[in-house]
Amino acid sequence: MSKVSGKDDGLEVRVREFLDAQPYLESIDELELSAEQRAGKKADYFVNVEGRREVVVELKSLRDCMDDKVQVLIDEYASQAGWPIVVGTTSIEQVLAHHPRGKEINEHLVKAITSPIEKGFGSANRQIRETKANFGLPRAKGLLVFANGNNEIVTPEIAAYRIWQLWGKRKHGSLLERLRSRLGIRKRAYSNIDSVIVLQAPDIENGLAMGGLQYEGGLTVRGMEGTLEEHLHVGWARRHGIEFAAGVEIRSAEELGAFSRSVGRKTFNAAGRNKYN
User: Fold this and answer.
1) Is the pLDDT of residue 172 over 80?
2) For residue 205, which phi and psi values (nearest 5 degrees)?
3) Against a cut of 0.85, is the pTM above it?
4) pLDDT at res. 205
5) What is the SS3 string spanning 161-183?
6) Which residue in 160, 170, 199, 220 is deepest, having the highest Cβ count within 10 Å?
7) Could you tell me which of 141, 139, 144, 138 has the C-alpha nearest to residue 121?
8) Is residue 238 predicted with pLDDT exceeding 80?
9) Number of other residues whose CB lies within 10 A of the CB of residue 49
10) CA-to-CA distance for 201 and 219, rounded, in angstroms?
């Protein structure tokens, strides 16, 4: 597993233990590897059913604390023209609702706090691609699993929205890609990732194990009933003795709502730390 630096290792360890216990998952680190395979970038698991390795799985942990980064951005915007005068306690939602660039600022804040998700997409795409090449599995699918703990900022709603954006991101820059763009056939930027799920820290109080996102209808594996994503989601919920509740899927800034609405557990200084105080 490649991990994003942070404080809480608890969820990362529990997710790893959960995945290790699944009979259909084969840990790549525990295999006998050739020199080339050891030297290359590797994902974490193969889905191996009846001797067929049909899916490559990479696990990423979201553990960055983004509080200071968010407040620095708010301070920067609060020092610019157009930021409303804030008296008393208010929310970022209320401030942005009255700002002429509210939607743009909201999008900037969301991208900033979800930078670990974009980083995870990039590295997972490379690891899955090289694993498929080094193990001779050109037709294997790729599954990216995010472990997201009790994160006060990257809530399931925000994670869903950013994953949806990155899922649809297209390659650009080269002459070939520009030509493909004109023809309407540009490849996805992270084309080795065929599905993404989030294993969220369970909400024991409300009896929910928050799930994640599934694209292209989910991954099917020969010899396995249902989709791979369903097996992982339901198994994760049962491990905690609670029912699985499907995760959210947010596809636009409007659906997400203002920044603070999805970050309800965290409060920031909407006036800016260097303004009016």
Assistant:
1) no
2) -60, -40
3) no
4) 57
5) HHHHHHHCCECCCCHHHHHHHHH
6) 199
7) 144
8) yes
9) 18
10) 23
